[in-house]
Amino acid sequence: MEIILKENVINLGYKDDIITVKDGYGRNFLIPTGKAILATSSAKKVLAENLKQRAHKLAQLKVQAEELAAKLEGLTLTLGVKASSTGKIFGSVTTIQIAEALEKQGIVVDKRIIAIKDVMKEVGTYKVSLKLHKEISSEITLEVVAE
Questions:
Q1: Which of these, 37, 94, 98, 147, could form a disulfide with 80 (CB 3.0-4.6 Å)?
Q2: Which structural domain, as residue segments, surrounds residue 14?
Q3: Total H helices, total E strands in the chain
Q4: Does residue 47 share a domain with residue 95?
């Protein structure tokens, strides 16, 4: 029996895979529990169209991420924070502060894609990585100065 998986099934396959299983396993377990559907010719056509549309959307997201990476290339942000006379920061620099500083520059990013490599507890220059897409990341320079 040929089926199309609707979700990942351990030791069997991944979502949207077309696989062959024994008739009883497909008819008595996979199809009734909603983990798979019968792989008819119409279901295969629908699957092919869905995969094509998903690939198109992913390609658009990748292009947008590449454009954003081009904007971020070579960018240096200056972030003013409260610090002691010796240069120690009260608290630390967070991803929220970096996202707000980028927004002031006209670049809107989610705080969850920002990865801080080193703990920023002192005034200085740091490298911050932004994971824009699963294949595309960008690095910016963050200059932390005392207010």
A1: 147
A2: 2-63
A3: 3, 7
A4: no
pLDDT tens by residue, 91-131? 888 999 999 999 998 999 999 999 998 888 899 999 999 99
32 and 84 both lie in a single domain: no
Unique residue bearing structure tokens 């869905």: 50
Which whole-number Å values give the CA distances from 67 to 4, 61, 132, in the listed order? 36, 10, 10
Is the model's pLDDT at 35 over the cut of 90? yes
Tokens, residue 43: 């279901």
Q: Which helix (H) or strand (E) holds 99?
A: helix 95-104
Cα–Cα dist 93/138, whole Å: 19
Point out the domain boundary residue: 48, 63, 78: 63
Cα angle: 14, vertex 20, 22; to 5 degrees: 115
